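Table S2 (continued). Query chain:
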Amino acid sequence: MNAHDLHGRPVIIGGGIAGLMTALHLAPEPVVLISRTSLGDESSSALAQGGIAASLGSDDCPDLHLDDTLAAGDGLCDEAAVRRVVEAAPQAIEHLGRLGVAFDQAPDGPLLLGLEAAHSRRRIVHAGGDATGRELVRALAAAVRRTPSIAILEGVEARRLLVEDGEIAGVLAVGNGDATTLSTGRVVLATGGIGGLFDHTTNPLGSFGQGLALAARAGAELADLEFVQFHPTALDGPPRPMPLVSEAVRGEGAVLVDERGRRFLADTPGGELAPRDVVARGVWRQLVAGHRVFLDARQCLGPRFANRFPAIASLCLAAGIDPAMEPIPVRPAAHYHMGGVAVDAAGRSSRRGLWVCGEAARTGLHGANRLASNSLIEAVVSAAWVATSLAAASPGTHRRLKPAIVPPRPDASRIRPIASHALGIERDGQTLRDAARTLVPIVAGDDAVSDPALVALMITVAALRREESRGSHFRTDFPRRDAQPRSLRLTLGETLEAAAILSDTASDTAALLGRRA
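Corresponding output:
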């Protein structure tokens, strides 16, 4: 299909669950779906093991799901947003079933419900035991390919959002080495994940926050960027991304032990099923103290491990570990970003013509610490609201876009050591300031490293501004929580002004402030 034939259509950037669901909800309106790889490949969605949270049990209800979400969010959830999601969740599971998602069921018919950390009830729906994300992507991608109104551009990467007169005017993308400009006044960002900024991550290495960089450079407001969730139990070994050992394993009774077999979280409220930030810090402190950490499922699962968690068992066996007979070496890894582009209830950003869905959006659901398995359900239900809002919006005026410089393909490799050191599980002001000074000239360089550096810089500035410890953000120099929690918002301009103050190089300061203009 000729790119000219696609002008004026809404453009969805991202081939994971959020992008696929949004495209399906918009049908039969013609839309363009841009995916950097084949649909679903190298997406965080496909790697999701844990499942989808929904109050489906006879002993459960949306109010209990809401209470658990608010408790995990540590004072920063938007209660109205949470209620809206948890109340929509049960019907969303039914809709996914109609789209062909094969959820795990008991022999007598009902869906099997698992337990994960900080949930007061068994409410986690799985597919393929521990392959929920992969099954969702499979079913949704197949549905998208069957929908004639969706033009799929695979192997195409969005490099910039084009803005004219304060509104989104188009998308500058690159595929097969050729640049393409799509004229559109309606864009959905559905490309989330920032784990590629870190050495230890469960995310694809290409997920460094490109959606955030696109939105920031287009002038949109971002919020709560400092809140990065580290999963406590990634399989400790050389592969990147690191294989995830799902929280559902701990939900079945597995315990965390050191090399001597000591259960170091035994006295922690909730133990291994405490909120993720608590468990991640507990594991991290053991590693810093020179211990090794293992997840021991021998007593609770033993020979049943491979049947209950076939994908995890396969990953362990490939690493030379039999989880039925020996404990699994684990360590925390960057896993999910609670912050993102600030959006309203319809997914609209502060930049006219730009909607955001999935992990790239800050909806108010997660607050300072995501409740396990709330991310997939957020992407699924939010996609419907985004699609409804976008369909009702004016398509805008078709513009003849000005030629734009095509940025190089981003590369986060130089940023990983900086982000890993400064933006990890425990942070401090001096390290954050040093990181900001290091990142300023990289952002100013305007090359392949600039976008990853910009995202890391925005998170660093946000982390410096939050002088407290809350949820996944822990400052060793500000270990207490503020009495009045507040969300912190940030624009590209504000980031550059803050960075310019920290920068010791006059030329970098001038370059950054000039780029803001």
